[in-house]
Design brief:
By secondary structure, the protein is α+β, with helices and mostly antiparallel strands. The chain folds into three domains: about 180 residues, no CATH class; about 60 residues, SH3 type barrels (Roll); about 140 residues, no CATH class. Helix content is about 60%, strand content about 10%. The protein is rod-shaped. The relative contact order is 0.06. One of its GO terms (molecular function) is mechanosensitive monoatomic ion channel activity.
Length: about 425
């Protein structure tokens, strides 16, 4: 008996308070010694056992200090069990010390479980090939919330010496408050399950959410937040539930397909569109990409016009080759011959509705480059060539007058006035 041992070592006759104080000090020393023993003996024994684990389990348990947290449980059990056999302590003191030990035990178990859950998440990331596609971090965080909530209820109930069920029954009146406080966590949990089940977002996906200025790769998915590293290296934190309540664009499909779309228009000055005469058609036939086109087109138009003349129709009804149509045929042939354009997907040049800024002639094709730098280089190469070849077809781009245009106009007008 711990009390009898104290009586033999320190005979405090008639001084029960001093006796009780010494007993508590000795109990604290025993708890400390037990904790030290567990840390140096238990950790070594369990460490040798864990050496047999493979697949990252041993490293995960060691990195998150799960065994160190388990060592804190034994001293709490020793204090709770020993204080029951100290008759010199007042019943109230014995109850308080025992309850504190039990509350500490609940917190220690919760901390150990929390670190164990972190180790499970770490092990999952190390051993599963698709762990980044289907992360479990949100579920781990939700489990930790449940563990700490239960530990808090048990600890508070133990300290006030009441049944945990009595405290839980009182939470019914606070349910509305709890729902309000944990609204984001509840919404995010449901959203996290939906995102994972429907495979809508993965770590590493490139997503774009203009409403939150997010445009970059997903680097982390937690219970409440999804972190996106933007192209300018800034981090945008998005509440998980907003990915379900608002629209966003995921570029994963483009990356997995191995092709990326070009959809950009050239604004043609409509006043430069005209018919080509025979000499101009012959000159353009020197371009190998449209030689076959011009030959087929001329034969088709000649046959059509002969039928019109035979029917006695007015010559205005005849069809002729235009510089814009010829350029459009050349651009299509150029795209189909380009080595960086995916020829298995749609490739075309299309006219859009004319507007006050000219006639949009849109390039619509897919490149074999999905990376941003390679894609932009291919797109720039295509449009560099198309812009440079436009004068060969006697076409002009529409461009609003700039300072140089105004200066040139004024200079020419001044020269004319001077000559006059």
């Amino acid at each position: 008996m711990l009390s009898a041992s104290i009586d033999r070592l320190v005979p405090f006759d008639g001084r029960p308070y001093a006796h009780a104080a010494v007993a508590l000090v000795v109990l604290a020393l025993v708890a400390w010694a037990t904790n030290w023993l567990m840390r140096h003996v238990l950790l070594r024994v369990l460490g040798r056992v864990l050496q047999r684990l493979t697949g990252g389990g041993r490293e995960a348990l060691h990195d998150h200090g799960v065994l160190r947290r388990l060592a804190n449980i034994v001293p709490a059990v020793v204090v709770w069990a020993s204080v029951q056999y100290m008759p010199d302590l007042a019943p109230e003191v014995r109850v308080v010390v025992g309850n504190v030990a039990l509350a500490f035990l609940a917190v220690a178990i919760a901390l150990a479980l929390s670190h164990l859950l972190d180790a499970v998440n770490d092990w999952y990331l190390r051993t599963r090939d698709r762990a980044h596609e289907r992360p479990i971090k949100g579920y781990v965080q939700m489990a930790k919330i449940v563990v700490f909530a239960i530990a808090a209820v048990v600890a508070v109930a133990t300290l006030v010496d009441r049944s945990p069920w009595l405290l839980l029954s009182g939470f019914g009146a606070l349910s509305a408050v709890l729902l309000l406080v944990f609204k984001d966590s509840i919404l995010s949990l449901v959203a996290s399950i939906q995102l994972s089940t429907n495979d809508m977002v993965r770590v590493g996906d490139w997503i774009e959410m203009p409403a939150l200025d997010a445009n970059g790769h997903v680097i982390d998915m937690a219970l409440n937040t999804v972190k996106v590293q933007n192209w300018d290296k800034t981090i945008t934190t998005i509440p998980t539930y907003r990915l379900m309540s608002e629209s966003f664009r995921n570029w994963r499909g483009m990356q997995e397909s191995g092709a990326r779309r070009i959809k950009r228009a050239l604004l043609i000055d409509q006043s430069s569109v005209r018919f080509l005469d025979a000499s101009e058609r012959d000159a353009l036939r020197a371009i190998s990409l449209i030689d076959d086109y011009l030959e087929r087109k001329c034969e088709e138009l000649a046959e059509h016009n002969e039928r019109l003349e035979a029917a006695g129709r007015h010559p205005v009804n005849t069809r002729r080759v235009t510089n814009l149509g010829t350029f459009r045929a050349y651009a299509c042939a150029y795209l189909r011959a380009h080595p960086r354009v995916d020829h298995d997907l749609m490739c075309m040049m299309r006219q859009l509705e004319p507007g006050p800024t000219g006639l949009p002639l849109e390039v619509y094709c897919f490149t074999v480059d999905t990376g941003l730098a390679d894609f932009e280089a291919t797109q720039a190469d295509i449009f560099d060539h198309l812009l440079a070849v436009l004068p060969a077809f006697d076409l002009r781009l529409y461009q609003q007058p700039g300072g140089a245009d105004v200066a040139a106009f004024l200079e020419g007008r001044g020269a004319r006035v001077g000559e006059a």
